[in-house]
Amino acid sequence: MPRNNFHEASQPLEVADTDVLTAIFPSYSLIVWNDEVNTFEWVIDTLIEVCGHSTEQAEQCAMLIHSQGKYAVKKGEYDILKPMCNAITDRGIGATIEVMAG
């Protein structure tokens, strides 16, 4: 006669702890570099127009660029930052994209 597994199946199952692996995609920073050529106004206008910054945010970024020599004005995916980087450099302002540390 076949064995009835109903009783066994109705018992709570023990679940082992498992690690879930997730894909890790690098994050990028759009870095704008200080120079002695471009004015604060030009950098601020560029950050507003290209990066969508508010006036206050663009002014703060410009001050940080000036005082630190460079500043990450935007973080995100490479494909989104690359056209912004190109638009900034097309305006004569130094900009690069860097992988964010860990």
Written overview of the protein:
The protein is 42% helix and 18% strand. It has 102 residues and is of the alpha+beta class. The chain has a three-stranded antiparallel β-sheet. The protein is globular and about 40 Å long. It starts with 5 loop residues before the first helix and ends with a strand.
Keywords:
single chain, 3 strands, Ribosomal Protein L30, Chain: A, 42% helix, alpha+beta, 102 residues
CATH superfamily grouping: Ribosomal protein L7/L12, C-terminal domain/Adaptor protein ClpS
Strand arrangement, major sheet: 2-1-3
- Mean of pLDDT: 86
- Helical segment tally? 4
CATH topology: Ribosomal Protein L30, Chain: A
What count of structural domains?
1
The unreliable regions are none
As a percent range, the share of helical residues equals 40-55%
Shape: globular
Termini separation comes to 61 Å
* Rg (CA only): 25 Å
Short note summarizing the structure:
The protein has one domain: Ribosomal Protein L30, Chain: A (2-Layer Sandwich), CATH 3.30.1390.10. The protein is 42% helix and 18% strand.
Topology:
Elements lengths: L5 H4 L18 E6 L6 H12 L3 H14 L1 E7 L1 H13 L4 E5 L3
Antiparallel strand pairs: 1-2, 1-3
